[in-house]
Specification:
single chain; 309 residues; alpha/beta; L-arginine/glycine Amidinotransferase, Chain A; three-stranded mixed beta sheet; 9 helices; 15 strands; 24% helix; globular
């Protein structure tokens, strides 16, 4: 990529053909952290059980993902490397709605990650980059553009104060609703836990994701309000939803990644989901991503799409 290249962000669908994406990097991620430095319960669990991933395995898995993206001629951009900083999960640093890149206000533990993508942000016309006021907390994993909607996972004010894993507040949902009035913006309140990875839903993409132009994956146990589940069932149709079991939700089976309306990247462990997708004529590119998943995210978490056609 030449520095003179101008990037025109454009996304109106989570699943349309991917043209340009920021993929996180596995380099110099800092090794095994101390428990007090972890900010998600999955990392804490694997750290306590001496199973936290090592550099070699993270690099192998992310390189396999890169190979698939390049197979489909996607333009892949990478953050600048910061030694000792975990930069695997690029998704949370921002998100595109229409032709605007919104820069997230992430938790303080991750604030150093955003300067590492300034080299890419600077390639986007300034009028198409939106930086939020500090009181609006939001991370890209909580945002999904789909069917003329913007779905946002969020936490109420009490949970925001209580949980480190509560990353998106009501004020951010309200702001996005006011700023993007051509979309129906809906906030889905999610269950949170700082200590139990199986009771926590870190972001919306850990419990919901559209696939193709009519299907979606959903983990009903993650939603606080049954009315939100009913809304999605009415929007997609029950027969078009893949309902995750509790165990499948706990492995973040919803966190696959769409390259197009017919091609997805999924973990080789997700046999039931992958078979369901193939039965509906999806091409499923299977990758082993278990080691990276120990840090609380998978394929969607590793990517920040900029352009979908």
């Amino acid at each position: 990529m030449k520095n003179s290249q101008i990037i025109e962000p454009y996304i109106t669908s989570e699943t349309s053909s991917l043209k340009s994406v920021i993929l996180g990097i596995p380099h110099d991620f800092g090794g095994t952290p101390k428990i007090e430095d972890c900010y998600d319960p999955s990392s804490i669990y694997y750290l306590k059980n001496n199973l936290f991933p090592i550099q070699e395995n993270i690099t192998r898995e992310m390189n396999a993902f890169l190979d698939v993206l390049e197979k489909y001629n996607v333009s892949v951009l990478r953050p600048e490397n910061i030694v000792g900083l975990n930069q695997v999960f690029a998704r949370d640093l921002g998100f595109v709605i229409g032709n605007t890149l919104i820069i997230s206000n992430v938790i303080n533990n991750r604030s150093e990650e955003i300067p590492a993508i300034e080299n890419i942000i600077n390639l986007i016309p300034s009028q198409k980059v939106l930086k939020l006021n500090k009181e609006l907390t939001i991370e890209g994993g909580d945002v999904c553009v789909c069917k003329n909607h913007v779905f946002i996972g969020y936490s109420n004010s009490l949970d925001i104060e209580k949980y480190k894993v509560a990353r998106t507040n009501q004020s951010a949902v309200d702001f996005i609703s006011n700023e993007f009035q051509n979309y129906k913006v809906m906030g889905f309140e999610l269950f949170k836990s700082d200590q139990d990875k199986d009771e926590n839903t870190l972001h919306l993409d850990c419990c919901f994701q559209p696939v193709g132009n009519q299907y979606a994956i959903i983990a009903p146990d993650s939603f606080k309000n049954k009315s939100d589940i009913s809304y999605l069932e009415n929007l997609f149709g029950n027969n078009n939803l893949f309902y995750l079991t509790k165990d499948e939700k706990n492995t973040m089976s919803s966190n696959i990644f769409s390259i197009s309306e017919t091609v997805v990247v999924s973990d080789s462990r997700f046999e039931r989901l992958n078979n369901w997708l193939r039965e509906r004529n999806f091409v499923v590119e299977e990758i082993d991503y278990f080691e990276i998943s120990k840090m609380g995210g998978l394929f969607r978490c590793s990517t920040l799409p900029l352009i979908r056609a």
